[in-house]
Every structure is written in C-alpha cells, then in structure tokens.
# Entry
Amino acid sequence: MQNPALREAVKRETEEADRKLQVIQAGVGGPIPKLIVQSVGGKPELEGYVGKSLGQIAEEEGKDPIEVMLDLSLAGDLNVEFLGPNRGFNAEYTAEMINDSSYTFPGASDGGAHTKFFTGGAFTTDFLRWLVRDEQRITLEEAHYRLSALPAQAAGFRDRGVLREGAAADVVVYSLDELAIEPEWIGEITYDFPGGEWRRIQRAKGYQAIIVNGVMTFADGKCTGATPGKLLRHGRG
# Structure
C-alpha cells in the first residue's frame, strides 16, 4: 500500500470500475469518496477522522480519496473501518412489491455470511415497524401472512406459519408500538465467536414472548434456554 506504482494502479482501476458500475454502485457500498470512517482501530491520533467521509478528508488535506483510504488504513494497522452512508429507503416502492404480488415476502440474503458488516436478521422487526406501524402502507394482517404463512408454504413446511387448531404452537407475542432495533444501522460489536472472533449484533425490542411447540423460549427479550424445536424433513416434524 506504500508503493507509489501500486497506488496509481489502484486509482486507475477504481476510476474504471466506477464508470462501469455506476448503475449498481448504490447497492455495493457506493463511490469511495462517500465512504465514512467508522472506527480507527483504537488509534487516538486518528479519532478526528471518525464520522468524516473520505471525500471530505481528501478535500481538507489536498489528497485523492484513494490516497486517504490507503494512508488511514496503514496508520491504523489495517484495522480502520469504512462504512457506506445510509441512503434512505422508499416505502412506497417497497410496499408496492409486497401488495401487488401474490408471491412476494420480505427477507434477507446471505444469512450469516457477512457477520462483520450488517445483521440481516433484523428485517422482520424493521418490516413491521416501518411499513406497517410508521408508514401504514401494509396492513398488520398482510404483514403476518407475508412473514409467516407464505414463507412456510414456499419452503414446503406443513402445519407451520399459521395459528389454527392442529398446527404447531409456534407463537410470537409483541407490542407493535414498542418495536425497535438497538442499536440502529449496523449494530454493535461483540466477541462471542470461537477463538475470540467478533461479529455485529442488534437487539430487538418490544417482544414479550416467543413460544415454540408450546414452550417459552424467550420471555421479555431474554432466552429461557429451552430448545423444544424439532427437525422437519419434507415439511413434516
């Protein structure tokens, strides 16, 4: 990263990639000048950069944003984190995808694949509080169907995803007004992986109980330790 020739090559290739990928840049982090310094690897002398974009720092110091990124990375012993900005979301378009199709349900890909970058499992809480409660673009009944019954049907699970006599007693009890995700955006770091490795986590607020096969597994947001779930083969318990 200190090699001048390598730096020039990185800048050239980044500029070329920007020209080719402008259409999808919004979904893959965005242009490098807009990346924000999230943390600096515990280096006090670099704390002044936290919260600033690479473009802003480049302008202040008269550098190319690529140079800024490489210099900060080296100064922080390659432990500096850069984060793409929150660009906001379109409730109207998202609700249209749900309401105007019989087969669409919310979800997140790459489950568990990017433990250091985001916590995709928060989408269920976000869906309920954002599009149902705050925006009121999807009814609560429709949301429950899209989050439970339809996914179970798509996965081939029988007698799952609905509340009715004879079905498994899997129930989530929550307060819609109290639903929240803490902390927001990308979560906080916890060192609970094997070998002391870290990941990001977020906590769901507003859930009173999670019941699996009639047994309480979570009560007021705390795990009870019970594991009453069963392996399903071909949609059957």
Remarks:
- The first strand starts at residue 36 and ends at 40.
